[in-house]
Amino acid sequence: MQPAQRPGGRTARVRTAVHEAVLDLLREDKWDDLSIAVVAERSGVHQATIYRRWGTLNALVDDVVVERLSQGSPVPDTGTLRGDLEAYALQVAEDVAGPLGSLYLRAAMIGSRGPEGETFLIERGVQLQNMLDRAAGRGERPPTLLELMEVVIAPLYYHAMFFNRPAGPDHARTLVDRLLSLNPQIRP
Amino acid sequence: MQPAQRPGGRTARVRTAVHEAVLDLLREDKWDDLSIAVVAERSGVHQATIYRRWGTLNALVDDVVVERLSQGSPVPDTGTLRGDLEAYALQVAEDVAGPLGSLYLRAAMIGSRGPEGETFLIERGVQLQNMLDRAAGRGERPPTLLELMEVVIAPLYYHAMFFNRPAGPDHARTLVDRLLSLNPQIRP
């Protein structure tokens, strides 16, 4: 008989096992057949446990991606709006060029099969909004989160997707220039 | 014995059969397993014929998508730059919201597995460049094709992908306003 585990320890281990299984399956190009049943089999965690904890496959994939983003690509805090935006843009340009890039696209595609209006990566959106709020708190005039997404992030993904040639750092900086020039007053 | 067919007639029928097979397979969510062998089986056209005609799966999918776009969403020619850009943006917003939207995304994902730098939808790019050149020919100052893609098209795809809620016509017009305000002189 195994000694009793602390609930926190077991919970953390279940989370790690399930996350690793999702990442493995996504890396293996199995994302079109991805389901909670498949994740359960791969992770050795019971389906019922996964359903209870995450509810839906979309929520699970979202949790995995947000965790990876938060660890590998934390939202910058450089002290200036331009510094934060450039650091973030360079990070995204690098992420979409690497193995994580197709993983995010896959995760987004899985998410886009869910109900209309279901927002993906909402937790990441909160972190980015905090970054913009910090700039406002310093007296800078940040763009909206929507402007940041549309003017900087969307093109970076678009280049990776449709041109199969991720934008480099210079291009990422150009997109930040464009964002900051939408309204000259927002430039620090 | 069948009467001999004119080569043009046979060529056209082969093209139609192969295109229909690709569209069917993409609609059926079979795109992760899409291959020339699968298309050959579905279309009844010999694999060797498909390889000879299209060369690669990417080139075939590209041909299918460009044909669908050219027929269903011809590049506008309204007589003014703003008119063309708005008509085009509204069309893309509508396309990504409909069944064609996920088809394009799927096709792009398939394309993005090809060699780095392989450009997708190049024929469509030529049509759009012609639209911008017509504006220049009228003495208007059009944006570059890259600016059009980044400022208007990328966000429309991004909304459909990550927010699972395609942008409506008002939003599409706002993106055109943003594009035309990148440089005030380009506004007609």
Automatic annotation (TrEMBL), chains A, B:
The keyword Phosphoprotein does not apply. SUPFAM superfamilies: Homeodomain-like (SSF46689), Tetracyclin repressor-like, C-terminal domain (SSF48498). Residues 12-72 form the HTH tetR-type domain. Residues 35-54 bind DNA. It comes from the Bacteria. Keywords: DNA-binding, Transcription, Transcription regulation. It holds the Pfam family TetR_C_11. One of its GO terms (molecular function) is transcription cis-regulatory region binding. The keyword Transcription applies. This is AcrR family transcriptional regulator. It comes from Streptosporangium saharense.
